[in-house]
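Annex B. Sample input.
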Amino acid sequence: MHLISGLTPAEASRICIHQCRAMCCRGPQCLQLTPEETVAFKNHAARLGVPLYVSESSDGSAVVPFPEYAGERCPMLDGATYKCRIYDDRPSRCRQFPDQQRPGCAISGG
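Annex B, continued. Sample output.
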């Protein structure tokens, strides 16, 4: 994870929610899921009543295309609060973000 030096996870979360409004979870991009994450993601969607559009591979991995959802955002992102609905069980790609300095990403120094 590539965070600004000295930034705590709580501070990073606050910045993501209130300053950039989870830009990493919005826009014309896709979220890649491992087979295990695909199962968990589907279970979360069912529990939350969130429609889910995924493109699954034969190995069970999947891609969640954000452009398929209202606001071009991750279906697990609450559009009103910009909080992740499954934060404690979010996919590894989300846990690893940011992996480098990203333009417009305040917590990466971009």
